[in-house]
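[Meeting: bench + compute handoff]

Bench side (C.D.) handed over the final construct sequence. Compute side (W.E.) agreed to return the predicted structure before the next meeting so the bench team could plan truncations. Sequence as handed over:
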Amino acid sequence: AGVAYTLVDPTEEEKYAPAVVRAISDAGQAKNVSVELAALAEGFKEKVEKGEARYAGSGFKGKGYSYDASELNDAQKLARLEKRQALIEAGMLDPDEEEERPSGGGGGGAGAQSKE
């Protein structure tokens, strides 16, 4: 158990107040939300409802890390094969179309090198 402090500047960080209140509440610590922070969050929610403000985004806009086929584990390879088969059965993929292959990495083709 420990103590954590989160400082929210009401003049510049008001848009984060609802997320901070939710995080504290989700952690089972709703009783520790200060009156000031709760009021700031409620005031901001009202601004959003009136169209005067927008909630803060998470900052995450990507799809995460994409693995090269050589980095996939067996479960991921199986999931990829099952997805491919389902797309073929649904008529959304040509069964003769090759899967994406990792570039380089051996196979003995031209330009492949072996370090021993």
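W.E. noted at the follow-up: Confidence is low (pLDDT under 50) at residues 102-116. C.D. will use this when planning the next construct.
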